[in-house]
Each structure stands twice: as C-alpha cells, then as structure tokens.
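Posting for a labmate who doesn't have an account.
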Amino acid sequence: MIRIVDRLTGKIDIEKVYGEKAISFITGDRWFQKCLLFLVAKLPLFSALYGLWQKAPWTKYKIKKFVRDYHLDTSEFEKNIDEFSSFNDFFIRRLKSSARPIAHAEAVIPADGRYLFFPNISEASGFFVKNQKFSLEELLQDKELADRYALGSLVIGRLCPVDYHRFHFPCEGIPSQSKSINGSWFSVNPKALKKNIHILTQNKRSLCELETKSFGKVLLIEVGATNVGSIIQTYDPQTLVKKGDEKGYFSFGASSLIILFEPGAIQFCDDLLQPGLEVRCLMGQAMNLSR
C-alpha cells in the first residue's frame, strides 16, 4: 500500500498502482524472482522490445479501458481519444496549455508525479528508508559536481504509467546539452526503492545543467526505469527557456526526475514538505516561496 498526499486536496490517498501484481512479483525475495529482476533490469533489449510493442497499432484497444480504470480527464488532451495511433502515442500525449497553468512562482513543478522535497540533502534522515541514501557522486559520476550540491536541496519526482509523461523546465534559464549516463532499468516503484535506494544511481539517466539568474546552476536529471523505451529530449541546448517550456518525454513505463539546487538557492513551499510521504503534484504548480 502506497500512501501519498494529494496537493490539491491536502488529503492522504492510497495510490492505485498500474501493474501492481507484476511489480510485486518481479521484486519478490525468491531466488527466481531475483534472477528475473536482474535480467529485466540489466538487459536493455527487454525494455526496448516492450517499448516497440506499445507503439504497435493494435495496442490502441487498451486506451479507453486505461482511461476508465484510472479516471483520466480526456478534456485535458490535445487529441481526441480516438486519434491516438498506439498506446505509446497516448502515453506521450500532449495536454492543452489550459490544463496545466504555470504558477507565478520562480520555480514550478516540472511534471505530473509524486514528489519528495529535501531542503538540505545532508540533513535528510533517509529518502525512502531511514539512514539509506544514495551517493551524489555515484548519481552524477562527477565528484566536483557532487561536492557543489552536497549541502544543497533535492527534489525527487516519481512518474507512474498513469501520469502525463512529458517533463518541463522548472525555471527560466539556459540549458546545456544533455549528458547520458548508461545504466540498468530497475523499477522505481517505492516497494523497489525501499529495498534498494541505490537504484536511482544505477539506472540509465540523463543530466542537464540549467544556468539561471534566480537559483544559480540547477541540475536536471531524468532517470529511466523498467519498460521505459527511451528518454527523449525535445529542447534546444544553449537557448533561453522559460519555466514550463517542454524539455522532453519518457516513452512507455514508470520513470523519475531529480532536481538539484545549490545550497540556500531555494525555499520550498511549506505544503511540499511532508516527512516520509510523497506529494502528488501537477506540472506548473509553484515549487518555491516568493522572495
């Protein structure tokens, strides 16, 4: 059972997990389950083939049932539900701009998802399990960069298959070219992360440095997961972007976003700080308190 705070209502909800039985099975403790998890996570061919399958025309039949089961609001979609060419086409759907208004805050939530916010990484007692934290140096594969953010602020966003899967820039600035770091395709479901938080430093990821006037240098990281066909970047490097501009999207599957701010650069909104609980946020909502 996964408990999350709905930011819109302030209430604690129980998350309805897509593919929950499959996730529970593949993350089980029996030897054959561990072997299966290893094969799925370590062989990119598995996720690639699954991604290709979701692009096939006959997968369209799943869309209407998926929408009903997860109570998605089709009025938000740019396309009519019958216009999607495949399940993946539906999965990477665009939304009408009116569906995700951009807040006046200097920094906004970059994607629909479930988030954890840490004002100071060094003071965090644990992300999903007490005293179990991942290494910034392993995450970034760069000691100098890790040292810069060691006392900074951290945002972890978890996107589920039911979410809108395009991600956006949280603030205005000039982005660098994205750097890819090869890795595995482990599940980022909380059940898996509670067993091994280091998944976030082991999975394939993409890193981009955003030079901003308001927050200094901000690191934007997209992390792939099981059944993520690919991480697609759609922005133009070295070109000024505004908060809320599209940065890219994930093909089918669950995935994560990580944002790193330099020490003292940002003060998160009070309602985002929920110790031990993820907060369900929507793209465009305010992330920081006005200064």
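Reply:
Got it, the structure tokens are right above this. The mean pLDDT is 82.
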